[in-house]
Amino acid sequence: MTDSCKVEALEEASLLYREPALYAEMADAEAVDTAAAIVALADRHGPAGADSLLDVGCGTGAVLEQLACKYSKSAGVDLLPGMIEISRERRPQLETYVGDMRTIRLGRSFEVVTCIGNALAYLTAPDDIEAAFATFAGHCVPGGVLVIRTLTAFPPLDRSRTSRTRVSGRSANVTTTYTRDPAAEVLILTRHWDFEDREPATDVIRRRVLTIGEQESFAAAAGFTLVRPRDEDEDMTIFIRDDAGDLRSGVADD
Ligand SMILES: C[S@@+](CC[C@H](N)C(=O)[O-])C[C@H]1O[C@@H](n2cnc3c(N)ncnc32)[C@H](O)[C@@H]1O
Question: Domain named Methyltransferase: which ranges (predicted)?
Answer without folding.
Answer: 54-144
